[in-house]
Amino acid sequence: RSCSFTGFSTVQSRKLAKSLSRSSVRSRMSLKAPKAYNSLQKGALIWDPKPLQVKKIFEALKKGLNEYLEAHQAELDYLSGRHKDTKRNSRLAFYYDLDKQIRSVERYIRKLEFHISKVEELYEAYCIQCRLRDGATNMKQAFSLSPATKASRESLVELYKNVQECTEDMCFIEGALEVHLGEFHVKMKGLVGFARLCPGDQYEVFMRLGRQKWRLKGKIETDDSQTWDEEEKIFIPNLHEKFEIKVTELRGLATILVGVVTCDSINFFTTKPQAIIVDITELGTIKLRLEVLW
User: Fold this and answer.
1) What domains lie within the chain, and their CATH numbers?
2) Do the Cβ atoms of 13 and 158 come closer than 8 Å?
3) Residue 89 burial by CB count (10 A; 0-12/13-18/19+): exposed, middle or buried?
4) Using the 8-state DSSP alphabet, how is residue 197 labeled?
5) Which one has a higher pLDDT value, 255 or 149?
6) How far is CA 219 from the centre of its chain?
7) Which of 192, 237, 186 has its CA nearest to residue 216?
8) What's the pTM value of the predicted model, to 2 decimals?
9) Bridge partner list, 191
10) Residue 136, phi then psi, degrees to nearest 5
11) Residue 275, exposed/middle/buried by CB under 10 A (0-12, 13-18, 19+)?
12) Distances (CA, A) of 34 to 39, 112, 114, 115, 179
């Protein structure tokens, strides 16, 4: 009985191996690794795929892209209506300018549609590799519990390779998907602290997203306004990392830690600028105000 089980599973594992080779992302897709993105940099590949996190980012990204598509489609409909009216009134100069705007919006809509289809294609390939890896992992566990035979040992080796290949492909797709996440433009809007902020106080804000860093210093002026040495920073979204924010107070040569917090970026994938207020201290006595535009 154990022999028949082993023989059947060996055949299944070989079929699975063929399926994996046919479904290999790198054999089907010519995806190159741009240098500007963390997950695709040499030596920076994370060999620990996170399907649940990727699913959340994919859904947020697709929703945001569809919002942009709907907004530009509404703009196109509005311009097309004016275009018809202008044509009847025969104001040629304005008509041709409007025609140029319409063509520009149409080109942007086509780019958005291609962007959405590419993201969907990548995520579909990712889900396939995820299911194949789960299947190979389950079969590997089954073989490890069966009597040790030459056939079962060979199947275990083959299944181990299959799991590794699926893992590599999933990580590769995560890096390729990260290229399509766009940019976050983060603006510094200042600290809020009421009685905690006094004229002359100096603070340092340090933000990190993966390997990307932003360090800026600010001062509370006598009229309670704030001046900061930088106002805006562009971050490339990361599938695996959250924003880390650290605020310290500068007192001469000494620094006093105000607080360290993390902030998820999943809600930033939207057409409208997001006003973010982050509690830096546990009681919320000092908050950090940011504006994020995707």
Assistant:
1) 51-179 (no CATH), 184-293 (2.60.40.150)
2) yes
3) exposed
4) -
5) 255
6) 33
7) 186
8) 0.77
9) 288
10) -65, -40
11) exposed
12) 10, 20, 19, 17, 8
- Smallest CA-to-CA distance from 36 within 175, 172, 167 is with 175
Say whether pLDDT at 44 is over 70. no
Structure tokens at 266: 């999943």
pLDDT digits (tens, 9 = 90+) for 251-270: 988 999 999 999 999 999 99
Cα(236)–Cα(265) distance, rounded to whole angstroms?
11
Q: Which amino acid is residue 138, in one-letter code?
A: N
Residue bearing tokens 């319409």: 102
Instruction: Read off the amino acid at residue 139.
Output: M
146 Cβ contact partners less than 8 Å away, ≥ 6 residues apart:
2, 5, 6, 9, 152
* 151 residue type, one letter: A
Name the token pair of 168: 């590599």
**Of residues 280, 277, 274, 254, the one with CA closest to residue 197:** 280
By the 10 Å C-beta count (0-12 exposed, 13-18 middle, 19+ buried), 14 is classed as middle
> Pairing relation of β-strands 202-209 and 184-192?
unpaired
Tell how strand 274-279 and strand 287-293 pair up.
antiparallel
Q: How far apart are the C-alpha atoms of 216 and 87, rounded to whole Å? A: 53
Tell me the residue length of the chain. 294
Kindly calculate the radius of gyration of the chain based on its CA atoms and give it in whole angstroms. 27
Instruction: Answer whether 75's CB lies under 8 Å from 105's CB.
Output: yes
**How far is the C-alpha of 3 from the C-alpha of 9, rounded, in Å?**
10
